[in-house]
């Protein structure tokens, strides 16, 4: 059984305009970064040393290697994206589609493309990362602890019944709350919500899958889940990946 492995992931960093050495056109080039990741049960959990970057001409498709440090200097982390334009979103009036030649007098993504100008994609993710989700988990732990105290006091003379009710209650808490309201009490307090990848509400099957895989994500005080979320483009833990869900703000 394969537990650990590795795989490479590609991330589009942005676009830059310069004369292509192959087709000789002053075209836009898409810059992609490739990074190896250590995998646990085929899920990326930690980046591996090294990495590479390539620049692809959008006219002729020619690919050329780019120094990763130079690529990062073109598109520094936290750089502001183009005004209101998400990658793949419909263009605003008077703007050209991504990949299509801009008409005379029109700017690509609201910015006039100059020679050698880098055009990074928006870097602010709509998906919730480790910090807020960790706080929501702490609040849920408090809720579970209070429930445990109440059950232990009521069924102090029958520990077997108390253990069963505690286990059943924990699973029911996560499944029912997520299936009906799309969030546990901890996520509600932080105004977070669990949805499908298309933004629609989740159901009982997704809540069940997420809860069952919480056993794996919760290993070592949720360190496993935190590592998977941190290295996921959509900030998904293992349960999210299996259920095809993401966590967003309400």
Q: What features would you describe in this structure?
A:
This protein is of the alpha+beta class. The protein contains seven helices and ten strands. Strands 1, 2, 3, 4, 5 and 8 form a six-stranded antiparallel β-sheet that branches. Strands 6-7 form a two-stranded parallel ribbon. A hairpin with a 2-residue loop joins strand 2 (26-40) and strand 3 (43-47). Helix 3 crosses helix 5.
Which structural traits does this protein have?
single chain; 250 residues; two-stranded parallel ribbon; 37% helix
Chart the SSEs and their pairings.
Layout: E1 4-19, E2 26-40, E3 43-47, E4 52-57, E5 63-66, H1 68-74, E6 95-96, E7 107-108, E8 118-120, H2 130-154, H3 159-181, H4 185-189, E9 192-196, H5 204-217, H6 219-230, H7 238-243, E10 245-249
